[in-house]
Amino acid sequence: MKRLITRPRSLVLVVALAVTAAMCTASAASAASSASETVVPAPPSNLTATAVSPDSVRLTWTNNAANQSGVVISLDGVDSVDVQGATVSSYTGDGLSPGTKYWFYIASKIYGTPGDPTGSGNTQSAWVGPVYVTTPNTSGSTDWAGSSFCTKYGVHIMGANYKGVAACGDPYANSSSNTQGTISYTTPSGNTVIFDGGPVGVAGFQCVELAARYFYFETTQDPPHPAYGSQFANELGGSAYGYNVYPAHSTGTSDNAGTSSFNPSLTAGNIISMWSKSDATGHVAVVTKVNVTKSAAGWNGTITLIDENASANGTDKITVKDGSMSYATAAGDYDEFQWTTNLPGSG
Fold this sequence. Notes:
By secondary structure, the protein is mostly beta strands. It has two domains: 21-134, Sandwich (Immunoglobulin-like); 148-340, endopeptidase fold (from Nostoc punctiforme) (Alpha-Beta Complex). 12% of the residues lie in helices and 35% in strands. The chain contains four helices and 20 strands. Strands 13-20-14-15-16-17-18-19 form an eight-stranded antiparallel β-sheet. Strands 3, 4, 6, 7 and 8 form a five-stranded antiparallel β-sheet that branches. It has a three-stranded antiparallel β-sheet with strand order 1-2-5, with no helix packed on it. The model is unreliable at 1-36, 173-178 and 198-202 (pLDDT under 50).
């Protein structure tokens, strides 16, 4: 982890007395005014640390500051790294030593100068932590990352890659090479995480597999295994996971929670399900870029996706025209959508 700042230690402030009572009064008034103008962000909460390899640890937390510029993470109370972003809620630190116990602290910050985490005028919340984690001595099956995951199963490398998660398999599920039995990852601690999902009874490189794989490596939570891509986001909004979804989670069939209207809560790094009234099985993908702007006519632009079982190279786009969203590819034509709004790393 790059050494940027050190965790503050106790300071002793020595204040010289003013010569005259007038000067003392003026200084006190000035100090009181300055203190009243200082805005200190609320500290994060729910800090967790998970070893994801012998030399890296993933941290997740809950943001409680509506006005933060970013967070500062301290390793062992000495080395620190600033992570910028008003909504950032995860970080992976690497360059650690195998078989070593580490502890982490976190605090939120407001920058005195926008974009400058180490400049003057910064304010910082109280430190939260520590949380402890021990890196494993040996690695599990780390070949999930990038195109090596496709190679492991001997399937086509589609080309699209987002945050180290690659799209695998032939363009469409009609190919037998997309059915590989159980697709999984063995964590450094020896746990097996299953990625594959629907269609019902078909394991392999379907759209659900990529969404499940991305979800796990962003959250370190076991992913849902819905029968259809249309149900993926809705399951993340249920009580088992508790993520925010738009429109809100609903019990019952997946298509009673959809919308065709764009909403700016849709940001890169979130998972989006889609379907139509005539095809409830639908599709699921990960949003990699949102290029949508608002004019007098409404929202217009495109939403770029990474997915499996829909396109030739693992990337697709949703079109937004005058506020209405539509998706048309060989996988199907969909006009109902539901998406997560607060996955770690989104925004």
